[in-house]
């Protein structure tokens, strides 16, 4: 990975995004094809999993709030339970939202409200989630649990076409006021959602887009409108200089017990630039300035990533705002603190 002197904060955070996945054993999962949407045994999951290693990963990485578990178990009983966001994916997004100190979130697609609650729980008391959906019947499954969790006042549920809600927010002068957006609704409209969310998200904010592989349909797009739309969006985001992006890799086929192609989650961070303030070496919770220890030829230009092993941390001990250090076996620890 190369970071120039005009380093972008989102490049560092993008690396931290990958760190959350690899170090914690989290994999952004499918809601249509993949089976890993829960943990602690198939009886407690939405779809369950027969893969022992995957179950181990989930059992040793997930911290699910009791209210989230209630919604998940209620969703199990629903015929469209596969539409629910994977709980490990929700946890990843929650950690990212915390990392950028999210106060205002946007959700395009609610279903039973699992991720709506997930976001509301992490927001400050005066924070807000604008949740867009067309089906109030599904949302009613989660509503009582939102109230029980004490976060109902943070959730602004709007039952109408999401494009209409997004246009209303823009017309109301709320452009660049949201910190985090999650898109998981009708696939034909993904490009419209992406463009409108990009206008609503502040510089440095994050847009997470689910189901971007669509169960492998992006590879066989003949007479498949949704597959073509997702393929076009993937290509567009890859070349979109307005954002920095990361696609989180799903389980490889040999680890996916269902034999299906798992989904990917695209994370886009709206560009915001700052000057490089140097590199802080972090070892045993001691902060020392030793950039030469982390394989950096120029602290403000080039960072060498070793072995792809990362961990994302939030460390108030980092005075510069960004810590990049090394531990055993070339693992990097990244921490982000506020704006520089």
TrEMBL record:
GO annotation (BP), single: methylation
Keywords (A to Z) from UniProt: Methyltransferase, S-adenosyl-L-methionine, Transferase
CDD domains the record matches: AdoMet_MTases
Molecular function as annotated in GO: O-methyltransferase activity; S-adenosylmethionine-dependent methyltransferase activity
Database matches in InterPro entries: Cation-dep_OMT (IPR050362), SAM-dependent_MTases_sf (IPR029063), SAM_O-MeTrfase (IPR002935)
SUPFAM superfamilies according to UniProt: S-adenosyl-L-methionine-dependent methyltransferases
Coiled-coil features, chain-numbered ranges: none
Source taxon at top rank: Eukaryota
UniProt keyword Transcription, yes or no: no
Family affiliation: Belongs to the class I-like SAM-binding methyltransferase superfamily. Cation-dependent O-methyltransferase family.
PANTHER family, A to Z: CATECHOL O-METHYLTRANSFERASE DOMAIN-CONTAINING PROTEIN 1, O-METHYLTRANSFERASE-RELATED
Name under which the protein is recorded: Catechol-O-methyltransferase domain containing 1
Source organism per UniProt: Erpetoichthys calabaricus (Rope fish)
High-level lineage: Eukaryota, Metazoa, Chordata, Craniata, Vertebrata
């Amino acid at each position: 990975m190369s970071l120039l002197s005009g380093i972008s904060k989102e490049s560092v955070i993008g690396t931290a995004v990958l760190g959350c996945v690899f170090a914690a054993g989290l994999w952004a999962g499918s809601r249509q094809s993949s089976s890993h949407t829960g943990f602690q045994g198939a009886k407690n999951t939405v779809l369950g999993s027969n893969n022992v290693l995957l179950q181990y990963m989930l059992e040793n990485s997930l911290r699910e709030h009791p209210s989230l578990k209630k919604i998940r178990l209620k969703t199990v009983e629903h015929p469209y339970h596969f539409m629910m966001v994977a709980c490990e994916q929700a946890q990843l997004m929650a950690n990212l939202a915390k990392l950028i100190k999210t106060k205002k979130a946007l959700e395009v697609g609610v279903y039973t409200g699992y991720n709506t609650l997930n976001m509301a729980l992490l927001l400050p008391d005066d924070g807000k989630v604008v949740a867009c959906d067309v089906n109030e019947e599904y949302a009613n499954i989660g509503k009582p649990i939102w109230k029980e969790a004490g976060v109902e006042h943070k959730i602004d549920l709007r039952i109408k076409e999401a494009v209409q809600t997004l246009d209303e927010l823009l017309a109301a002068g709320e452009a660049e006021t949201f910190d985090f957006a999650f898109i998981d609704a009708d696939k034909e409209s993904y490009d419209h959602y992406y463009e409108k969310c990009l206008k609503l998200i502040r510089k440095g904010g994050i847009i997470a887009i689910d189901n971007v592989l669509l169960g492998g349909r992006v590879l066989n797009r003949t007479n498949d409108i949704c597959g073509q739309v997702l393929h076009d969006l993937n290509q567009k985001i890859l070349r979109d200089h307005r954002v920095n992006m990361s696609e989180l890799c799903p389980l490889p086929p040999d680890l996916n017990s269902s034999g299906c192609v798992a989904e990917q989650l695209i994370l886009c961070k709206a560009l915001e630039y700052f000057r490089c303030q140097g590199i802080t070496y972090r070892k045993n919770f001691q902060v020392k300035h030793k950039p030469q220890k982390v394989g950096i030829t120029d602290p403000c230009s080039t960072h060498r990533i070793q072995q792809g092993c990362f961990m994302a941390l939030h460390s108030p001990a980092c005075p510069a705002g960004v810590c990049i250090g090394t531990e055993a076996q070339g693992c990097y620890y990244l921490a982000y603190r506020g704006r520089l």
